[in-house]
Amino acid sequence: MRKQALKPLSCAIALGLGLGMMSFVQTAAAAWQPKKPVEFIVMAGKGGGADKAVRFMQNIIAKHNLSAKPFTPINKPGGSGAEALVHVNSASDPDHTIMFTLNSFYTTPLRQPGLNVDISTFTPIGRMAEDTFLLWVNVDSGIENVEQFVAAAKAKGNAWIMAGTGKNSEDNLLTDFLNKAYGLNMKYVPYKGGGRVAKELAGNNANSTVNNPSEQLGFYQAGKTRALAAFTPARLPLFADAPTFGELGKDFVYFMQRTVVGAPGMSEEAATYYRQLFASIYGSDEWQGYMTKKSLQGGYITGDILMRYWLREKAVHKVMLQKMGAIK
Amino acid sequence: MDILSLLLTGFAIAFEPLNLGLIVFGCAVGLFIGAMPGLGSVNGVAILLPMTFLVPPTGAIIFLGAIYYGAMYGGAISSIMLGIPGASTAVATTFDGRPMALKGEADKALIAAATASFIGGSVGVVLFTLFAPPLADVALTFGAPEIFALMLMAFATFIGLGSDDIPKTIFSIFIGLVFGSVGLDIISGEPRLIFGDIPGFFHGINFLVLAIGIYGIAEMLWTIEVSQGDVMISQATVSVRRILNSLRELTRTWKTMLMGSFLGYFVGILPAAGATPGSLMAYGISKTMSKKPETYGKGNINGVVAPEAANNAASTGAMLPMLTLGIPGSPTTAILLGGMVIWGLEPGPMVFTDHPDFVWGFIASLYAANVFALLINIAFIPAFIWVLKMPFTILAPIIFVLCVVGGFVPTLDMHDVWLMLIFGIVGYLMRKLDYPMAPAVLAIVLGPLAEPALRQSLLISGGSFSIFFSRPFAGVIMVIALVLFALPLLKIAKSLIRR
Amino acid sequence: MRMAELAMGVVMGVFSLYLMWKSAELPIGWIPDEGPGGGAWPFWLSAGMLLCCIAIVIRWAKRMTPESRSEDVYMDGRTFKLFLLNAGALTGMVGLFHIFGAYGAIPLFLIFYLRFLGGHSWRLTGTFAAVTPVVTFLFFEIALQKTLPKGITDPWFEPIFSFFY
After folding, report:
1. Which of A33, A35, A40, A61 to mutate to test the interface with C (most CBs of C within 10 A)?
2. Which domains, from first to last, does chain A contain?
């Protein structure tokens, strides 16, 4: 009797051990998975270009069932991304905190050293794209090329209004470049957000802008605004008529990164998981279509290559900000 | 024009069973979200955006549009029932809606809000249908000087809002404006008023933090003091006869409704303005034009009708620049715009010609959403009244919990909850000394719109104020604003001389 | 009441001065060709607040407002006790958010308020204390995907999230 009673018990133990082993093997193979909803911090406000891209990615994740747990976008636009950087830098759960960044990822820690943010401690996940910049004017101005633009801007002196997104932002860097390269004295007027800037140009409240294609596309297609030249190494397929500044003899190229960053101290397993996840988002038809439509450039880079890219860009921005006098 | 035939095609699309279901469901969800303090249409639309890939784009925008509408109706519910505006668009509704609820007329206030919302929304949709393209061109020419003039006008309509104690009223306005300037100064690119280098101040002081602190916590503490903690929050009853009586009384407010609707719509069209200034101006103008302005703030039904008609008309108006120019007129439309991109549509001037089914299906759905939001709202009024009948010692802690969670959710930052608590407690101590609080809340909404517009204008003009008068639209609005400012000041001067 | 009116006027006046000092971190003057500097708007408004406070104190001295004439006590003993209990409980709840998270703090607050301030039955208290966090969780975390603070209870939620997703 006793032996018989023992038998099922030992079977159960054996089975339990076996199951335990199996699940152990399985976890090792299936690797790390998020255990709760993932905080997807956005360095910009609701409705802006970065926010739209994050919600677009969130949609791709949900549509293709790429993750068991949801990704919840959280907007932290405060202080040109300072608030987002501080939040991610001191994240309580680095394995479930990622951030979508722009070039303020380099410029904000440079301009506000008091934040104690060192971007080389962040975990590189994946660069999803590089956004491009073009020089735009209103069609009503009659200006069709950079030569006419320079002549008109010279004639108006500092009454020529260049609208952009905030002081010392990307738009401001480009305006300073144009002023210096062509001997102009355009006045830079900051607005909140690229969409608003695009609208000020279309409504003739500004003379020129350096918008991203996605911001001006609607007005461009409606024939209200015109692209004069691109800050890219080669002409953009969507704006084939606009030469690059390189062609015009001014060697200047500028991109805006659109990159997913992990919190400092993220475990290697989690980082691997996110790198694979965002690689498959990058490869999806939806993302590729989005890139074509928004005239986005750049391939997917990750890991050490991405970190080297950051450090190089940081050095470039440091020089640019120093030239502007924004930092010492 | 073949607008009518386009609209009819639109109705055929909107009344497809799936789309109709989405409208009803969206209105109900929106109403519920809007009725929560701290959650408004922005949250509703942003949160439910990922669900919309399950349906085709037209269904998706119809669904989000219905949520938007439902939430605009729902915002009034929390304003009236709890005295806490759920969103900045519903601030003006608290001024008279709350006193009505305290007088035992919560049902009448709710019906008035729902009906006014319906009228405002309907007028808005009709104007949208008829005049979309020409109005879009006008909206496009509005720059910083026009926006500043408009904000000045909004302030001017509100100058009589505070108490009789003028220094305290001005103090309240100014402190709201100063709090509104916390955060990043976009013109100089520098952080400003970051008290104690706390990172939470980088995003500025959210309007909701001040509003929930003052209208939620301070008001509750005040009510607890007055009632000594043991009576009901208000006497409330509801019956079919009372509803019919309320509706009859409402017919007398038709002028206010129409004024609010038109004003709200035209302010709503303007980029960056959104529905809040429109609703505030409608309240102010309704009060100024009234024969008995002293009854405002004490439960005048016109004080509920005007802002509610205006904010719903404005929310429709805000869709116009979104659809025709690809520019959001309010935070909520900014999210809708993002949605259109996700669904593969390019918002902007071409959308009317490239995707007529989408645009007209959406417009037609707004007509239907209006009707359903009204019906659902009225059907739920008995439930809201039942909530009000709960003993105060049950209602008070629940409201406190709602305030804390509602203060946390918009930014997901405990910093804001602590700030809200401080505002609540200090606000209560100040309220006991008759410092008016409403002007501070309005100022924190309008200030961050007004200041950058002023400085952008001056940058453009090289520091000359003539820019506000040399441009046709800005000049006209500016003159109206100055006249509005002068009227009450003259009154004050007169009374001072007499004294 | 009279003393409270003076005290509030003085405290707010000092606060205005602090705001003016803090605003002056950025230029407060007129920048030629550009208009006001970054600190001008808050600085001059704070200066306006200070003037209002001075007016309030002058009117207090001249007994021009109802509050400055009133000899009533600002808060009697019972009111003060009610204020302390309510504000204290609320502050306690917010503080506990950091330690026990929303789902620990909310039930504790409700139990304290309903049972000890409201004097309701344990049955009613228990029902509210149990139902409110569940509804809050379902509405905010599952339906709206807004994560509330969880403090030390954070790991307990992993199986709950696994159940829902």
Report:
1. A35
2. 38-131+255-324 (3.40.190.150), 134-239 (3.40.190.10)
Residues in contact with B168: Cβ distance below 8 Å, sequence separation at least 6, in sequence order: B162, B433, B434, B435, B436, C52, C56
- Cβ contact (<8 Å) for A219 and B349? yes
Last residue of a domain, one of C17, C38, C69: C69
Q: Would you call B455 and C114 a contact, using CB atoms and an 8 Å cutoff?
A: no
The dihedral over CA atoms of B26, B29, B32, B34, expressed in degrees to the nearest 10, equals -50
Q: How far is B123 from chain C (nearest CA, A)?
A: 32
Which uninterrupted H or E stretch holds B331? helix B331-342
Which chains would you list as touching B if contact means 3+ CB atom pairs under 8 Å? A, C
Question: Quick check: C119 and B393 CB within 8 A?
Answer: yes
Kindly report the pTM of this predicted structure. Answer: 0.84
Residue with tokens 């015009």: A248
The predicted-structure confidence for A53-67, as pLDDT tens digits, reads as follows: 898 899 899 888 898
Contacts of C37 in chain B (CB under 8 A): 188
Q: How far is B102 from chain C (nearest CA, A)?
A: 21
What pLDDT score was predicted for residue A11? 44
CA gap C163, B90 in Å, rounded:
38
| Domain-ending residue, one of C22, C47, C69 | C69
For residue B435, the chain C residues in CB contact (below 8 A) are: 8
Which residues form the domain of C41?
Answer: 2-69
Provide the residue ranges of all domains of chain B, joining segments of one domain with +: 3-498
Q: What are phi and psi of C7, to 5 degrees?
A: -60, -45
C86 contacts in chain B (CB < 8 Å): 220-221, 224, 396
From A228-232, B155-159, B405-409, the region with the lowest mean pLDDT:
B155-159
Distance from CA of B208 to the nearest CA of C (A): 17
Contact B412 C147 (CB under 8 A): yes
Nearest residue to C13 via CA among A108, B146, B493, B175? B175
Q: Are residues C91 and C64 in the same domain?
A: no
Distances in Å between the alpha carbon of A210 and those of A245, A274, A322, B93?
13, 33, 21, 42
CB–CB contact C33 B409 (8 Å) = no
Examine the domain organization and report whether C100 and C54 are in the same domain.
no
Tell me which chains share at least 3 CB pairs under 8 Å with chain A: B, C
- For residues C57 and C108, membership in a common domain is answered with no
**Structure ipTM over 0.85, yes or no:** yes
Residues of B in contact with A324 (CB under 8 A): none
pLDDT higher than 60, residue B419: yes
Q: Identify whether residues C62 and C117 lie together within a single domain.
A: no
Q: Strands (DSSP E) along chain C, which ranges?
A: 30-31, 35-36
Going by pLDDT thresholds of 50, 70 and 90, the confidence category of residue B498 is: low
Question: How far, rounded to the nearest angstrom, does the alpha carbon of residue C66 sit from its chain's CA centroid?
Answer: 27
* Parts of chain C with a pLDDT under 50: none
Distance CA B463, CA C67 (A): 44
The answer on C86 and C159 residing in a single domain is yes
Residues of B in contact with C65 (CB under 8 A): 165, 434
Q: Is B455 on the interface with A (CB under 8 A)?
A: no
Residues C26 and C85 in one domain: no
Digit-by-digit pLDDT tens for chain A (328 residues) are 344 444 444 444 444 444 444 444 444 445 799 998 999 999 887 767 788 889 889 989 988 889 888 898 888 887 788 889 999 998 889 999 999 999 999 999 998 888 889 999 999 999 999 999 999 999 999 999 999 999 999 999 999 999 998 888 889 999 999 999 999 999 999 998 887 898 899 989 999 999 999 888 888 988 899 999 999 999 999 999 999 999 999 988 999 999 999 999 999 999 999 999 999 999 999 999 999 988 899 999 999 999 999 999 999 999 988 988 888 7
CB-based contact C46 B174, cutoff 8 Å = yes
User: Do C152 and C132 lie in a common domain?
Assistant: yes
The tally of domains found in chain C comes to 2
Instruction: Determine contact, residues B453/B148, Cβ cutoff 8 Å.
Output: yes
Nearest to A79 among B188, B191, B326 (CB): B191
Put simply, the answer to whether B140 touches A202 (Cβ < 8 Å) is yes
- Token pair for B286: 């309704």
Residue C165: closest CA among A72, A21, A19: A72
Judgement on whether residues C145 and C106 belong to the same structural domain of the protein: yes
